[in-house]
Amino acid sequence: MQRIRKGDEVIVIAGRDKGKRGTVLRRVDAEHIVVEGVNRAKKHQRPNPMKNVTGGIVDLDMPIHVSNVALFNPATQKADRIGFKELEGGRKVRVFKSNGEQVDV
Fold first, then answer.
1. Which listed CATH number (3.30.70.100, 2.30.30.140, 2.30.30.30, 1.20.1740.10) goes with 9-96?
2. Which of 33, 41, 78, 102 has an alpha carbon within 20 to 30 A of 55's alpha carbon?
3. DSSP assignments along 38-68, one per residue
């Protein structure tokens, strides 16, 4: 089970974009994620009239290592670590380490 998933709101805790907050757009592989508005790079794109793409300089969200982000806890308004807890039915859920609240409602 993954600690950070697509759609989660995360805070960058290390690197150039430290302190920025955004949502996870996708997982690239087991250790890298793409976060909205974080680790942006400029790409020079050629125009492609067949695909109706205009040329110019575009901003891309590049992957960031999963160890450099932490899940945002809305109760404490801070970054928080994630743990796992098994419910009565045998279902595993993610919980915040600081207050023990369930992440997935």
1. 2.30.30.30
2. 33
3. SSEEEEEE--BTTTTB--EEEEEEPPEEGGG
